[in-house]
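Budget justification aside, the reviewers requested a transparent look at the raw inputs and outputs of the sequence design task funded under Objective 1. We therefore reproduce one unedited record. The lines immediately below are the structure tokens for a 124-residue chain.
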């Protein structure tokens, strides 16, 4: 067993929207990522995602069942769970540090392949 210092690990994350693996359990990855600006609209066919704000704040834009755009702000110490198939897009006005908890098979851009897509994640 090893303890993990999130603040220390976050100093190793250099680029925005580039998740890094910090732990693994029961087929799930614990990832750290820094947000700034808008991400891409996407969804995940088979995976739910948990976003926990370590520092800062971000807005989760999403579409409801009638395809209306909505948004919720997630502040330091808060989390949101995005259910599979929910179209969503994180957005941060300022740098935001986030812990993600999701199945190891989860591609960060889900249903979309673009400049944000990261297939091979670093472990820190």
């Amino acid at each position: 067993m090893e303890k993990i210092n999130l603040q220390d690990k976050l100093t190793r994350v250099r680029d925005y929207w580039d998740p890094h693996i910090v732990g693994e359990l029961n087929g799930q990855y614990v990832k750290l990522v820094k947000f700034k600006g808008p991400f891409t609209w996407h969804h995940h066919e088979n995976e739910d995602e948990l976003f926990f704000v370590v520092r800062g704040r971000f807005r989760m834009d999403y579409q409801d069942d009638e395809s209306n755009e909505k948004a919720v702000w997630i502040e330091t110490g808060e989390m949101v769970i995005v259910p599979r198939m929910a179209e969503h897009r994180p957005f941060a006005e300022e740098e935001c540090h986030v812990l993600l908890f999701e199945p190891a098979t989860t591609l960060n851009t889900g249903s979309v392949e673009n400049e944000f897509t990261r297939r091979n994640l670093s472990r820190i």
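Helices lie at 6-10. The radius of gyration is 14 Å. Computational costs for records of this kind are itemized in the attached budget.
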